[in-house]
Amino acid sequence: MKVALESNAFFMGVEYLAVFCCGLVGGLAAVRKQYDLFAILVIAWLTALGGGILRDVLLEVPPVGITDRWSVVTALVSGIAIAIVHPEINKLKWSMITLDALALGLFAVNGTAKAMYLGTSGMTAGFLGMATALGGGLTRDILLNDVPMIIRDKHWYAVPSAIGCVCTVFVCKGRMAGLLDAEQEIGLDVLIIVLIVGMRLASVIYNIKFPGAVERHN
Amino acid sequence: MKVALESNAFFMGVEYLAVFCCGLVGGLAAVRKQYDLFAILVIAWLTALGGGILRDVLLEVPPVGITDRWSVVTALVSGIAIAIVHPEINKLKWSMITLDALALGLFAVNGTAKAMYLGTSGMTAGFLGMATALGGGLTRDILLNDVPMIIRDKHWYAVPSAIGCVCTVFVCKGRMAGLLDAEQEIGLDVLIIVLIVGMRLASVIYNIKFPGAVERHN
Amino acid sequence: MKVALESNAFFMGVEYLAVFCCGLVGGLAAVRKQYDLFAILVIAWLTALGGGILRDVLLEVPPVGITDRWSVVTALVSGIAIAIVHPEINKLKWSMITLDALALGLFAVNGTAKAMYLGTSGMTAGFLGMATALGGGLTRDILLNDVPMIIRDKHWYAVPSAIGCVCTVFVCKGRMAGLLDAEQEIGLDVLIIVLIVGMRLASVIYNIKFPGAVERHN
Fold first, then answer.
1. N or C: which terminal CB in chain B sees fewer CB atoms within 10 Å?
2. Exposed, middle or buried by CB within 10 Å (0-12, 13-18, 19+), for A61?
3. pLDDT tens-digit profile of C144-159?
4. Cβ separation of A151 and B34 shorter than 8 Å?
5. pLDDT tens digits, one per residue of A176-192
6. Which residues of B touch C145 (CB under 8 A)?
7. In terms of CA atoms, which chain C residue is nearest residue B162?
8. Residues of chain A neighbouring C217 (CB-CB closer than 8 A)
9. What is the CA radius of gyration of chain A?
10. What pTM did the predictor assign?
11. Nearest Cα to C213, choosing from B56, A90, A66?
């Protein structure tokens, strides 16, 4: 069974857009640190496709990030683009946060669905969805020697993706049990992505944070 | 053939205890750096199960750390626990060092044995045992952007696990050659763990260090 | 079909020399940071064989770096050697840069060829060749908590290996299509390595740098 959101041209287009946005976000981090063009390309490629590579290594299937021509081309083009238009992208702060949230949602849903349709358990699929969504940014931050954003960011970033992965597991189970048809699955998947984007943006806009350890005095 | 120390309820219990302790140690590092609850959970989970994931990726089998329900639950519970009881755990310095050493020993022995029974050579099994024992702490320190403890710690940490892995290879070979029965294998495995814990604790208590490069003047 | 440069004793010797040199370079970084002997061994081993491990994990074949006895022995001997002769090696700056460039070239060509003969597409083989050439240094720098050299080094380092990998893909395709015989393949492979070494050295000697992002004012 195919991943629902890769079943038609529109959703494939959205996926390439997500790869492109992730590449821009990653490449911009390299531009800011004044690395050379090759480093910008490597960081853009790994931010965009590193999550999928991580998922595919854990799933023991050939990694999309080094085998799918158009994904690779999209990621590299995003690296070249950001090397040229970085001042403009820098100003688009909110657009970038929104597009990054969109990519987070899309990667979470598609990563989870891909694992489910390869026959993993729901729990494993949830982990793999999160690996897909968060792995790219993780790789970028490790290469740039920063504490990864999923650890450091006080706003909701990993949490919405986790919630989205869990929801996707139930949608896939419903589809595999015949309770949902293809269109309903797509509808629910889109709803989950909207939910993830909404939670991420609400957290940044209203400065909503996830609690830390229980504060207690020694 | 099954891994000897996973053959009965008592040793399975010890293994979950080791996972739990590793999770506490990892989560505590995240609590100290004041990250949020989600980061604490991620770090606890990866410290506890990241070594096994590394081993399983190198062995090309489905990673326990994302497929075994009870291991995952144990790791996540340890993350929640440390978020609440961190002041108490902080005070238990020696208990924690001992439990961490116990986990080091158990993961080294079980990781090596798992690889041996999957048919790898002794050398490969030794490397995989060390990956199991050291991989969790490695992942934690990379995520927290510290130099990994296996590189940084001047006291014996990796060395006892390496010695333990080599011993385990010989015990497994003896068992596979029919020279040892199941009980003798368990007995020797327990002895190896005691040896690893003993070396680690002796090194910390008596401040025994491993030499560095030969000191010479240019 | 075998990897051309592993087809006779001379080239196998060159490969072990490359492993040994990488181990020296890696171990030296650990010696400079005053880590203990075990850390020096781990870093030497991972610098020498980490690239191949990365390639083999992505290819889903048993990693050479934990299964091939002589590669492992060579890497560990290089770690022990550097712990003793580090003051001498420290003075051999140009020899080391040359030997490191030789290893870069050899790993790029052999990594790409290994992937091609396992049946990957040219693009995937190119990525895997670069993973082989660059993965070892990457692992070393992540463990030592530095920004990886492939990101940080302003001189040509990753770029010559990328060009070499692309050339190797075409040579392998020529060989597989029957346009080249074994000797011609070896000749061209050697030529590619000379090209990579030449580009790397020229870049360091004449201070040739790769451009960064387009400089523009906001």
1. C
2. middle
3. 998 888 888 888 888 9
4. no
5. 998 988 889 899 999 99
6. 145-147
7. C38
8. 87
9. 17
10. 0.91
11. A90
